[in-house]
Specification:
The complex is a heterodimer of chains A (about 400) and B (about 425). By secondary structure, chain A is an alpha/beta fold. Chain A has 17 helices and 13 strands. Chain B has a six-stranded parallel beta sheet. In chain B, helix 1 packs across helix 7. The chains are: A alpha/beta (about 400), B alpha/beta (about 425).
Chain lengths: ~400, ~425
């Protein structure tokens, strides 16, 4: 087996919340040494957000934070102190990669702009990511991915045609932007490996999120069309909806895309008389009578268990249970791919992490350790990365510049 | 690595990537092409089936007019090749020998069945990185399942958490599933290239679009194991320690999104709204006199009745916001640092001052037509170019350039390949 892809790569992860930490996680899970900055004075908002082990809030008890920060070592720094800023600057000299996601201007204030860092570390690759980019009239407007999902068009196109838009769950655009940041960052690392040249990357989460809407932007600029929400309907498929099944809030999604599939689907339903009506003979008539179609199909599905129906219809007809979070742990395909990975966290005990969405044939992604408590690895990091003595570290801890919590405190 | 020099200086400019995907995987090659890689898009001789997906230029349905094709295939070179013919396979292997990566989105097993699976390509070029973007991955009990966007939304878990709780769950109306899978494909291809460059070892990257979508569940997946519960959809409302607040509010010309919270950050936003509103309307004393900064989760846990204040505030905002249009509300929010956002339409996005200030939109030339405005570069890189590609290719547009000029196929042979519909 080959070494992991980023073995030997040194990453100073000063980012927080979503996009930055997830970007660094790609590197960490594939072999890089990633040091994550943390502080309980200016705590990452994810550390105070659920889920918490046994439902008990606590900085070291949140798997919202945990899931975004496995395979990393934690260094606790109180950046309000001069000594901590000096440590952060030394870490930036140690690193091949520096990530940050503060409001623009924050890093410069600490003497940690790209210009500052690259003066003595010219090969550094530095990535800044924020809501709307480092420049422009809204560069300094704070926000989070839920608002950005609204801002970049996702809420407008979600919900029912006869009702207001609805929010997509969570900070949706974070989970678009993090793959753009990671792709650009690895490309920059590749360039550096070939040429020795480092560089600075500015990724606006807004700009990344609108990439998914490229065709819709063109449709507006050339045709003047603006899409809106339309429930679960699709212009080229019917039936195409979520239908009720046995049990509380249980549903199955079914998509019938061709007339041939419609014939098979009718057979699966036992060729009921209603389905033979001319109203449902072709895609265009099924679209015209879609409400009635959905009612009839729903009457049939409601006598079924959603999982049993999924396996009854697949692989002939596209069908899938509308899975809740419990279901994901029992999904046969998710299990086959070994997606969820249990790791032993210092305070939470055994907890499940989302694994890799890609299976590499020769360098399998490896979640090397559970996420750190705030500053859990401060001593080890300062010794190994910066060569600090125990006495020096004790002094920094005593003054409050460096923080250690968890089992090593 | 392909040694040929390139006219761009993108971070990935030394690399040559063969893109065999249909609409499910196009985005991967586009992202890598934007970063400078040479992307050769292979289509069947009759054209990529994704060319028939709308929207279309001037709403005219035509395989050269798909705006989806245009956007996701800009900057790519287009060749056509019948992969099922013996000669087609031989030509493809010749291409693979000189390429760095192959990206594909066929049904699992299909390339193997025609003798062009990873093992066959590895035998031709041990450094090749092959990225497969499918619904559920290459193996496993669901690998052969049909997985259009709606089904991915259901199985990945995001649909369950989206929509009005009184009605069926909904997907996002514009398909997202394969976008996440393709973006994951871009990440994994760059990783594979980075590794192959230094070690000489290529590999196969097998992507599950279902799981790429599950990542958007954010914090939801650990709930069953940590708190023994599953989150539910809450529609236009959000719940915090038992108190419900609206997230979506009507404006004069559409909607805005605001998540009202107490505590320091949320409280400041609420105070700023009152300061603004106080200029024109009466604010109920009860709301005005509430210490919103002090009303964090802990305070509500102590006194659950106080949570109702947020519901009352929501109701008052329902009357306040419709006095203004989205643009005015957002402008005031920026000025006063109120955390909210417009529910933007695509039209709003195309006219957005921040995107325009950062020169996000660019014009791409199309022969015979006026230039068309595209979303442009999605990252700013200080030393390497991120490019805006030329318009997407016609079917087989670069056949001569690739087969004759680069691979040395003779003119006579080239004509024969065209006649026999190998290319």
């Amino acid at each position: 087996m080959a070494d992991l892809i980023f073995k030997g790569l040194k990453v100073w992860d000063m980012s927080w919340v979503g996009v930055g930490p997830l970007t660094a996680r790609y590197l960490a899970d594939n072999g890089a040494t990633v040091i994550r900055m943390d502080s309980s004075k200016r705590v990452d908002i994810l550390r105070i957000s659920p889920p918490f082990q046994d439902g008990k809030p606590g900085f070291n008890n949140s798997m919202f934070y945990g899931d975004f920060n496995c395979s990393k070592l934690g260094l606790g720094l109180d950046m309000a102190t001069d000594e901590a800023r000096e440590v952060a600057r030394e870490m930036a000299q140690w690193a091949d990669v520096v990530l940050e996601s503060f409001t623009p201007g924050n890093m410069a204030k600490w003497g940690l702009s790209y210009e500052d860092i690259s003066k003595d570390n010219p090969g550094v690759v530095m990535l800044s990511t924020c809501m709307q980019g480092q420049t422009g009239p809204r560069a300094h407007y704070p926000g989070f991915g839920n608002l950005m999902a609204s801002n970049s068009g996702y809420y407008e196109i979600t919900g029912w045609a006869d009702a207001e838009p609805v929010p997509v769950y969570g900070a949706y655009t974070d989970f678009i932007a993090h793959r753009f940041t990671t792709t650009a960052l690895i490309a920059a690392l590749d360039h550096k490996a070939r040429t020795g040249q480092g560089q600075y990357l500015d990724v606006s989460q807004f700009e990344a999120a609108v990439q998914y809407f490229g065709p819709e932007v063109l449709d507006y600029t050339v045709n003047g069309n603006t899409p809106t929400r339309n429930g679960n309907a699709d212009p080229i498929a019917a039936p195409h909806a979520a239908y009720p099944c046995l049990g509380e809030d249980r549903w199955i999604a079914i998509a019938v895309e061709t007339d041939q599939e419609w014939r098979i689907f009718k057979e699966k339903m036992g060729n009921p008389a209603w389905a033979e009506s001319a109203k449902f003979a072709t895609l265009s008539t099924r679209k015209e009578n879609e409400d009635e179609l959905n009612q009839q199909v729903g009457a049939w599905t409601s006598a079924w268990n959603d999982k049993e129906l999924q396996y009854f219809l697949q692989p002939d007809i596209a069908a899938g249970s509308v899975q809740d979070q419990f279901d994901l742990y029992e999904d046969a395909q998710t299990l086959y791919r070994g997606y969820f990975v249990d790791l032993e966290h210092s305070e939470m005990g055994k907890v499940p992490y989302n694994g890799s969405q890609t299976l590499f044939s020769k360098t399998p992604t490896t979640l090397s350790k559970a996420s750190p408590c705030v500053g859990e690895d401060s001593r080890q990091v300062l010794k190994e990365c910066l060569g600090f003595s125990d006495q020096k570290i004790d002094g920094l801890v005593a003054s409050g510049a460096v923080e250690i919590t968890g089992p090593n405190a | 690595m392909n040694a040929q020099s390139s006219d761009t200086t993108g971070a990935l400019s030394p690399y040559k990537i063969l893109d065999l995907t249909d609409h499910r995987g196009w985005l991967a090659g586009k992202m890598l092409g934007d970063l400078g890689a040479t992307i050769i898009k292979l289509e069947p001789v009759d054209g990529d089936p994704g060319r028939h997906r709308g929207p279309f230029f001037k709403d005219k349905v035509d395989s050269d007019n798909s705006l989806k094709w245009w956007f996701f295939n800009q900057g790519k070179k287009g060749i056509s090749l019948d992969l099922e013919s013996e000669q087609g396979k031989a030509l493809f292997k010749q291409l693979v020998a000189d390429a760095d990566a192959v990206i594909e989105s066929f049904e699992p097993g299909w390339l193997d069945s025609i003798g062009l699976g990873y093992k066959a390509l590895e035998a031709v070029n041990s450094k090749i990185v092959m990225t497969s973007i499918t619904a559920f991955g290459q193996g496993g009990p669901h690998a052969g399942f049909k997985g259009p966007d709606l089904i991915l939304s259901a199985l990945c878990g995001t649909m369950y958490l989206c929509g009005d709780p009184e009605r069926p769950p909904v997907r996002i109306s514009i398909p997202q599933g394969y976008m996440h899978g393709a973006a994951e494909g871009a990440v994994s291809t760059t990783m594979g290239l980075y590794h192959a460059r230094s070690t000489g070892i290529g590999q196969h990257a097998d992507i599950s679009s279902q799981l790429a979508c599950s990542r958007a569940l954010m914090n939801a997946t650990p709930f069953p194991k940590l708190e023994n519960r599953s989150l539910q959809r809450t529609g236009i409302w959000t719940e915090s320690v038992g108190s419900f607040r609206r997230v979506i509010y009507p404006a004069k010309d559409g909607f805005i999104t605001m998540m009202i919270n107490g505590g320091m950050l949320g409280g400041k936003s609420i105070e700023a709204i009152f300061e603004w509103a106080g200029e024109t309307v009466e604010i109920p004393e009860k709301l005005l006199n509430t210490d919103w900064q002090g009303l964090d989760a802990a305070a509500i846990i102590q006194d659950p009745a106080k949570g109702l204040l947020f519901t009352e505030l929501s109701e008052w905002l329902m009357d306040f916001y419709p006095n203004f249009d989205k643009e005015t509300i957002y402008a005031e929010a920026l000025k006063r640092r109120i955390l909210l956002a417009p529910v933007s339409t695509i039209a709003d996005i195309c006219e957005d001052e921040q995107l325009i200030a950062r020169e996000y939109f660019v014009d791409v030339e199309h022969e015979g037509n006026d230039a068309v405005t595209y979303p442009g570069v999605w990252a700013k890189m200080s030393e390497t170019e991120i490019r805006v590609g030329a318009r997407a290719p016609h079917v087989g547009e670069h056949n001569r350039a690739i087969f004759v000029d680069e691979m040395g196929v003779s003119e006579v042979e080239f004509e024969r390949l065209v006649e026999t519909r190998i290319i």
